[in-house]
Amino acid sequence: MYSGRGFREWEIGDIDVIKVGETYHLFHLVLPNHDYIAHAVSKDCIQWKRVKNALFVGDPGEWDDDMLWTMHVTQEGDQYVMHYTGLSQEEKGHYQRIGRAVSKDLMHWEKDNSLPFPIEPNDPYESKIDNVRQWVSFRDPYLFTENDRRFLLVCARIKSGSISRRGCVGLVELTKEGHQLYPPLFVPYVYDDVECPCLVKIRGTYYLIGSIREDIKVHYWYSKQFQGEYHAYHNNVLMPKGNYAARITYDEGHLLLYSFYASGKDVETAHRTFCPPKELDVDIHGKLVLKSFYRWGDKIKNTLEHTQFPEFKSVLNNPSGWHKKTEHFHEFACVSGYEVFCFKNPSKDFLWRGKIKIVGLGKCGLVFDANEDGDAYYISLDTVQGLVQIRRWRKNPQDIYKDYEFENLQSNNFKPSTTLDYAFEFIRYGHYAELSIDGVVCLSLVVRELEGEYIGLYCESAEVSLHESSLMELNDHREDHLTQTLV
Predict the structure, then answer these.
(1) pLDDT in tens, 286-308
(2) Which residues, other chains included, contact 21 with Cβ-Cβ below 8 Å and sequence gap of 6+?
(3) Quick check: helix, strand or coil at residue 306?
(4) Burial annotation 244-266 (CB, 10 A radius, 16+ → b, else e)
(5) Residues ≥6 apart with Cβ < 8 Å to 82
(6) Which residues in the chain are classed under CATH 2.115.10.20?
(7) φ/ψ (deg, to 5) at 62
């Protein structure tokens, strides 16, 4: 886990990760000033340590003397190259260009803005002399190589159409002679911008990923050809609400997707936390899916099998609820109304795995960070329609007219099963929470408000069995501070 701790609680910005040897290198923006690109390193991609800052804004009068925005780091021969976004004070930061920096060791960077850099927008994109809002998008470069040709994908805008729907993925080829601007790789005709675009080719299909401010989600599109056309599935949300600025890197045969999580309704001012990665995969229908990070298993300290679970407690004392423990499973039921069954969790950082089966058409779900009054995070599982939602539900004694707080924090879909039998894996690590259903990550978020000691599940007019379940204690988490001693 990695989060800013400066004057504001939202200082970490857009991110990029590259792995070299056994070390992961994280580069990220620092908000609100955008005056440098920070650098952190990790051995497990979960715990991070700040090191020497990578790049700073230019001196007064240079093209990037105002702000630095999103970057992408790649290896080219015996050096590393960072393509980055720069803004100018003279232009009041209204016009974005793409610059270049190089390094031999990822620690010491030098700007190399010989031609064709910096690259600025022109036909067919909105430009300094041809735009309608006096603020030009041309940022978030991502280098993609196709048949030995090198292209930059950029967040840009076309020059026609509704002002708030011109966002596109621009395409720039880097050539020996300089650069060439091509028509957009993709125009959705619906968003103001397609931020932090990135592209990956898996099993002959190109998958284009972008972050959308309108709903604060990560979307994707696909094509059999590099330059399109790109299409959307009926559900093309790759990461649910709050996850943003997603980028891709390779890790020893694993394709990893990174993002930060924005805790708030506005991605611009929300508290951002850089979260553990997910693995990117493709299902049998050609759709992108996310799997839990393969290195979580390295952090397991102790394991409790289901027969070793502490005694479950009925929190609400509903007389129609009951719990039964057998050699092979736990069984829970509540015939009328609602009941929460919990036990005291022996670890704050844990991985809970098992299978859950519901009998009948009632409701059920998981509960964590609960207290003895039933204040908790509730993960609602609609096992018939395939809808999962996480809610914060707690009392509110400060308001006698509304003595409760109830908020849906995130939702997603999963594939329904005719048997109503599902495998789940739930991770709680520091403030991070992640739920997988049948091997696919459905929920991924950061929640901080509740700190109850109990974990369990709930039933409403349902009978539920929990089997093949185990609770694994994870090594203690540590959130790095921006003020940490440099190495």
Answers:
(1) 999 999 999 999 999 999 998 89
(2) none
(3) helix
(4) bbbbbbebeebbbbbbbbbbeee
(5) 27, 37, 54, 55, 71, 72, 73, 100, 101, 102, 103, 109
(6) 2-295
(7) -80, 160
Q: Are 14 and 140 in contact (CB under 8 A)?
A: yes
**HSE-up (13 A, CA, CB side) for residue 302:** 10
DSSP 345: -
Q: How far is CA 365 from CA 304, 355, 424, 435, 465, in A?
A: 21, 12, 11, 12, 11
Q: How far apart are CA 56 and CA 67, in angstroms?
A: 9
Q: How many helices (H) and strands (E) does the chain have?
A: 0, 36
pLDDT tens column, 136-167: 999 999 999 999 999 999 999 999 999 999 99
The span from the CA of 365 to the CA of 433, in Å, is 15
Which amino acid appears at position 375 of this protein? Answer: D
Task: Look at the chain and count its residues.
Answer: 487
Question: What kind and span of H or E run contains 352?
Answer: strand 350-359
At 15 the three-state DSSP class reads strand
Residue 105 has pLDDT above 60, yes or no: yes
DSSP for 438-463? TTEEEEEEE--S---SEEEEEEEEEE
Domain 300-474 in CATH 3.90.226.10? The answer is: no
User: What whole-number distance in Å separates Cα of residue 18 and Cα of residue 54?
Assistant: 14
Which tokens in the block code for residue 269? 């001012």
Q: Report the alpha-carbon distance of residue 393 to residue 377 in Å, rounded.
A: 6
Cβ distance 276 to 259 under 8 Å? no
Task: List, by residue range, all CATH 2.60.120.560 domains of the chain.
Answer: 300-474
447: number of CA atoms within 13 Å, CB side?
24
Kindly give, in sequence order, each residue whose CB lies less than 8 Å from that of residue 97, ignoring residues fewer than 6 positions away.
Answer: 63, 64, 85, 86, 87, 118, 119, 120, 138
How far is the C-alpha of 246 from the C-alpha of 233, rounded, in Å? 19
For domain 2-295, the CATH architecture is 5 Propeller (2.115)
CB-based contact 154:169 (threshold 8 Å): yes
**pLDDT digits over 199-236, tens only?**
999 999 999 999 999 999 999 999 999 998 999 999 99
- State the sign of the Cα–Cα–Cα–Cα dihedral 372, 374, 377, 380: positive
Given 3-state DSSP classes, what are the helix, strand and coil percentages for the chain, each rounded to the nearest 5?
A: 0, 55, 40
**pTM of the predicted protein model:** 0.92
Token digits for 411?
């939702």
For 185, phi then psi, to 5°, come to: -65, -35
Q: What is the pLDDT of residue 266?
A: 72
Asked if the bond preceding 124 is cis, omega within 30° of 0, the reply is: yes
